[in-house]
Model the fold of this input.
Amino acid sequence: MKTDAPPLSGVRVLDFGHVLAAPFCTRLLADLGADVVRVESSRHPDFPWPSSYRHSDGRHASYLNTNRNKRSVAIDLKHPAGRDVARRLAAAADVVVENFSAGVMTRLGLGYETLKETNPRLIFASMSGYGNSGPRRDWTSMNMNLQGYAGLMQVTGAEGDPPTAISNSWNDYIGGLHTGYAIIGALTERQSTGQGVHLDIGQFECSVSMIAPLLLFSAVKQRNPERMGNRSTRSAPQGVYRCAGEDEWCAVSVRDDGQWRALAAAVADAGLADETRFATLPGRMRHHDEIDERIEAWTSRLPGDEVEARLKQAGVSAARMRRVRDLVEGEEPSGAYRRMTEPRVGSMLTTALPVELSESPLPPASPAPALGQHTREVLREWLDLPDGEWAALDGQGALV
Done:
């Protein structure tokens, strides 16, 4: 049944997040229509890294992208009156999300056990690096540390390479995705139970969950999995092959024997098709190096887009390697990103929620808020706060 309201319309989310993991989680919720209110303070601004552009309030490109579709209230959580306002907002919220180190929210008097007393329906999501319990709860965590401890850096890259991290804050995004999924599940459960829940989500566990086949391999074989680089145990040949031109490449993956015959025909190397030792996956795995040399002898004579076109026409999985700049300057891919009006830069490229819903709309992208831009507005809507009390709190320095 079609509706004019986004899926999470009416859901109030109080976002105590900083940097990326929790803000990315709450942006997913905001993209689905939730009313996400960031709790910020000018005393501890969330501007953690350099950017190609900054403005008077210090907002950088990543912040503007990660915090779109949200509102911002400025509250000093070190001020007693500020903490009281935060508790009152939590009493009016459906969801609280935070990614401080373990125990920080409790020490501020804003932990789950305290907040549920006035709001038993509250869904409270904690997103520390190693969880809020257990022997690792007090460990300091960053993306690189988490990837190393989760074993991820020893299964990326090839044998002989130093440990290799996945770039672009893998753990923050994976943690944000898992937490967003958990919150939607908790909202669904609350419809039948009427009760909230504390979601304790360690980004370490989220990272480990994404390498399940490698964990199973190690458990069965009692040894570490090999570092495969660009190769696979299920497809051969598979790799990135040099093409004509400067630093041009094409990624190719042959899934089955039929695709192998199609590749051999496209490469026009009669020996490849006729060699019985290449006819099956085990044989191609054993002779992968030789096959790679013969494929690259063909690809290196052609531009990457022509290699891609010929192999796709033959039914082989292939894609020329594009740089991020190619994505930006090329034809806009449907659902990957869009332009957003941003008052600080005029127009801004922003990644999109890669989801289309047939029965309900997603809200249009709105710019990230300035720090404290919506303080008075949110306190009036969520708390019915009279102007006199707002002025008193502002005068005390609680709303900064």
